[in-house]
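Saturday, quiet lab. Running sequence design on the structure tokens for the scaffold JK sent over.
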């Protein structure tokens, strides 16, 4: 399994809106992608730091080829204060 991790920076006051957009718009889009297994959004409302984690049973970069990543980020682009940083990891252990 593969994980795509995206580090996000927003204004702390926009944390609730980021959570709403992620839950109501991004997750439904992800569910429509082949190989999607789950999504988590971690936020710190004091600093505006967020981490999106999505799990895939296929190479998550395949979604990028189809424009999924760009479409996903565009959903909350107006909230971002910095360019998101995307990383890919092998998912090895869940306890």
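Result came back. Writing it out in full:
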């Amino acid at each position: 399994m593969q994980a795509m991790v995206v580090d996000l920076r927003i204004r702390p006051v926009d944390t609730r809106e980021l959570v709403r957009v992620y839950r109501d718009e991004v997750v439904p889009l992800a569910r429509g992608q082949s190989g999607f297994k789950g999504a988590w959004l971690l936020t710190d409302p004091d600093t505006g730091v967020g981490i999106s984690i999505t799990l895939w049973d296929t190479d998550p970069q395949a979604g990028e080829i189809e424009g999924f990543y760009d479409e996903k980020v565009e959903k909350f682009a107006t909230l971002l204060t910095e360019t998101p940083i995307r990383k890919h990891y092998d998912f090895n252990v869940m306890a």
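Notes for JK: The first helix runs from residue 15 to 31. DSSP finds three helices and four strands in the chain. Ask whether to fix the surface positions before the next round.
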